[in-house]
Amino acid sequence: MEMDSSNQDKSSGSFSCITAIPGKFKAKVVEFTEKTKKIGQDDPRRIAHSAKVGLALTLVSFFYYFRPLYDGFGQAGMWAILTVVVVFEYTVGATLSKCLNRGFATLLAGALGIGAEYLATLCGEKGEPVLLGILVFLLATTSTFMRFFPSVKRRYDYGVLIFILTFSLVAVSGYRVNQIIQLAHQRLSTILIGAATCIVISIFICPVWAGQDLHNLASANIEKLATFLQGFGDEFFSFLGDECSVVASKDVKSFLQGYKTVLNAKATEESLANFAWWEPCHGRFKFHHPWKQYLKIGVLVRECACYIEALSGYINSKPQVPSEFSIKIHQLCVKISLESGKALKDLAAAIKNMVHPCATDTHIKNSIAAANELKSILESSSSLAKPDLQEIMPALVVASILIDIIKCIEKISESIHELSGKAHFKNNANSTITPEKQQQKQLLHRGIVKPINDANCDRVAIEIHGTCEDNSSKK
Amino acid sequence: MEMDSSNQDKSSGSFSCITAIPGKFKAKVVEFTEKTKKIGQDDPRRIAHSAKVGLALTLVSFFYYFRPLYDGFGQAGMWAILTVVVVFEYTVGATLSKCLNRGFATLLAGALGIGAEYLATLCGEKGEPVLLGILVFLLATTSTFMRFFPSVKRRYDYGVLIFILTFSLVAVSGYRVNQIIQLAHQRLSTILIGAATCIVISIFICPVWAGQDLHNLASANIEKLATFLQGFGDEFFSFLGDECSVVASKDVKSFLQGYKTVLNAKATEESLANFAWWEPCHGRFKFHHPWKQYLKIGVLVRECACYIEALSGYINSKPQVPSEFSIKIHQLCVKISLESGKALKDLAAAIKNMVHPCATDTHIKNSIAAANELKSILESSSSLAKPDLQEIMPALVVASILIDIIKCIEKISESIHELSGKAHFKNNANSTITPEKQQQKQLLHRGIVKPINDANCDRVAIEIHGTCEDNSSKK
């Protein structure tokens, strides 16, 4: 003990090094635990998904454990495990897509493989491997090339892969295995059992619907742009020092970052739309829900996000000694920004609650009116005192970009109206009574629906068994 | 014949329907052929890749055809075919990533599986399936959850999948198959043979390097922005009716579309960078080439593309009766736009030829000078005649966005200088002589390098064995 302390000075370098390793290790473990916690908290469905995969695997492994099942399928039970591991995806759509692709590709390629095998046996013992080799080469080459077709890649990529695999296995292994039909039957049934296990667990235990995710993503992205525009309105006018903007400036960072994720949402949106195409009707989504329309909306939303990116550079551009003219322009910019934000908020809420957007047009009209007022002020500017261009330039640029944003929002609104029509969104109370409306009213009388009067909208929001969220509660 | 013609009027509907089917079919076939041709022409490496997959499959199917090989491996030869189909990807990096992931995951999971199996046998006949079931469930659940970690998903996603698969197969099948070690040995060797076949064919026959593609993509994206800015300069000033801009306006559509693809390049860039990480040194790329730096450049380039998106709305905004003041602003905007375009062109060429960017700073300085001139004109505007705000507003907005673009280009230039430093790009002739330079000079004397004097750049470009392209030939 004494020696240790006497040597402490000399060996302090190596000593700290030794204590640093467990310290570092501890830090790593803490970091890892926090990361794990965060990933789980961000989306608790991930934990459920992991458990679902574990459950599916445990279920199919019964093929090996129980003698009656094992006697029926033998080593082919392996294919059930393989199918579950490879096919079980996060969303129902992705799982279904892989299951159906795997199933049909296996059937088709199996049949073709047996045909090729039969054809090859006609060529004699020497010709058989040559013909089979040529067939495998040709089929693998053309199928691989097919995977470069965008339409094939989007939906049937996995199917083509399994097609090549199964054809090669059947055609080639058939050369040795005589009971090819029995083998094919065993494999097919185990693959079917594996796939069915995945589908049932995926759909009936905490399902993650790609369609629902796409729907929520579209709404959330529009909401993010709305938050930016509303925050920008406050922030841009803050040089007058009103209190409300001071509060808002604390959250500047969060709303400044929000729109950036919108810019990169394309890949996620496209894969979700592809998976949603495979899903059966679920929740509020019918079988032929117009998923493609979400992609169109996505393109417009990203265009709008681009304008916002250009706008974000002006968030802190405030005139030093604002002239009356400059204040007027600023005020109008703020009005356009706030009204545009409200229009987008309404559109986001309309998608979220699947109701026809009702207040959007009013907000768009308000922002257009403000833009027109701005234009007329600029026109009449030559009759006023000479403006200091350097001072008002940022405001002019902001105004101009905001006018572009209004145009963009008009397009988004149009696109969402189209979606509303195609997907039969509920109408608001102002419109004429549709058959669906009548049905809702009947439901109302039967006492399972509670009406909520939204002051802004004068709409009757419907809440059925807790599946439909109402936006009025968030206001 | 006569009856046909007499009935023609009556049956014209069904008749045209019958002829329409082969017509429609023919049209479909023609369309399909053209599509196939286009996909092949767009990137002829796709045809080569398809043939490579066919070749690899044919090679590994020899396991079944030839008795000596078949006797050694038996049905395990199937795993070689499975490995080739699943592992062979378009780029070398992706193939290597899958092969290494598969290899290590199989080894690790195999060892763990045997351990689990041994542990389970200690629990007696009744306890064995229970313990194995619990182990499979726990391992599958935690591994599946690991796949949600971004760092795992990026590089080891496939490895984790194979890990779950192999562990389940080994642990579960071990319950029946006694010669588990021999089976594992057979499977491992066939998987190794399949993977080795893929790697060799992928690297040595028309290799598609993800790194090279990422490098080219970065250069091409910057080039697209440059083309837009240069075209925009011409187009924006075309209200004066000079001939050169009339010629340019024909290509408006093509350069207007170019930058749009840049906005959506994120997903491609990221996957290429991930695959490039796995690739050995090749061509002009060393082992530790800074692939991450390309992603940083990509972010900045997309930001710039966003500003360009905002700019593109003003491409046709020309004043009706341009005042002298307006023309002056326009002229300066055009100058900024052209110089920015040249700066980006130089940066794109620098990446492409892997030389240190040399003329960029001059062009950036020129555009900053023009921007400053513009600012001073705006400052002095109050002393001039009163400007018509409505008329000059588009030009002001364009000027302001262009100034943002200059800032963005400065950042891109900085980032490319960083890349140039990390990746040891060649220096130009102006700089001090580095050891590499000295080596190049020695090569020059040995007569295998031909010097090309670029008038703009005063740089000595090096061409070694035709692997290095020179941009001066494209000018």
From TrEMBL, chains A, B:
Keywords (A to Z) from UniProt: Ion channel, Ion transport, Membrane, Transmembrane, Transmembrane helix, Transport
GO BP annotations, alphabetical order: monoatomic ion transmembrane transport
Location(s), subcellular: Membrane
Top-rank taxon, per record: Eukaryota
Coiled coil, from the record: none
Main location: membrane
Transmembrane regions: 47-66, 72-92, 104-124, 130-149, 156-176, 188-210
Cellular compartments per GO CC: membrane
Membrane topology recorded in Swiss-Prot or TrEMBL: Multi-pass membrane protein
InterPro entries, per the entry: ALMT
Family membership noted in the UniProt record: Belongs to the aromatic acid exporter (TC 2.A.85) family.
Listed PANTHER family: ALUMINUM-ACTIVATED MALATE TRANSPORTER 10 (PTHR31086)
The protein's name: Aluminum-activated malate transporter 8
Lineage: Eukaryota, Viridiplantae, Streptophyta, Embryophyta, Tracheophyta
